[in-house]
């Protein structure tokens, strides 16, 4: 199972827990780091944590998702929706910034150092509503996130497509650090994934926890699927806007603001904006935008592996009402 993150464990806790070294980064991405998101245990520097202590509030908006499920896309869409009154579309920060620069990731201090862009020293520096994101599983989230009443938008994706996406992302990372030896075969990643020894932790448990929360507290947790967004984004963006309490007005509907936001966040545009530049010394901005398609897994796995995943999926999701 997942371990509980220490309370108020925003970035500082995670950073203190596992250190900020390139080797941890590497273990994390290749799935060999054994305690994924296992803060709350070990040598926390309480003074550091105290300094950064941050109480989450009802107005906070979180994007949650297992790595490579489309979190960057959802970040851009959420930013586009929330900030639509602040900037005309043709002056949107999304035309000049990577979505990661606009939606702050809770684990940032942990797995990155030397950001190429400024980071807040304290979450209170962010304007309300704070746009935050995390890959941390529900169980492991700090209590104050669960009890503050903040809203969580969870994105899920077909596990095989998630795996393929992850594999290519690690390849890009390996190229960047000039050490391609760290890349396992896709089949090895597949095995690790099935065993739950993977970046982000066990996949199905991650998805199911948020799925169940979305059924229990539909006003606080919105469950989205990458495939549904790809299929027909507009109705889902309307749902998102309503969920966060910022529905599109009749005037905005008539001006078709939603379609403008969709266009702004289109993968082609995102690739153009982010074709050069880096997140930090590990990641190129462009590595977050690859194909952006549904079903790339069909080009990557043998029938035997597909069958194995289908069996596992059936077993894990049985009775949940969820399927991919
Ligand atoms: P692929 O590798 O299958 O192309 P994350 O943002 O959670 O790391 O997920 C990355 C995946 O989302 C990648 O999938 C990437 O191409 C896809 N993606 C990123 N931006 C997108 C967009 N604007 N539209 C659709 N897919 C997008």
Automatic annotation (TrEMBL):
Pfam families: Sulfotransfer_1. The keyword Transport does not apply. GO terms for molecular function: sulfotransferase activity. Keywords: Transferase. This is Sulfotransferase. Its EC number is 2.8.2.-. It comes from the Eukaryota. It is an enzyme of class 2 (transferase). The lineage of its organism: Eukaryota, Viridiplantae, Streptophyta, Embryophyta, Tracheophyta. Residues 59-321 form the Sulfotransferase domain. Belongs to the sulfotransferase 1 family. It comes from Chenopodium quinoa (Quinoa). PANTHER family: SULFOTRANSFERASE SULT.
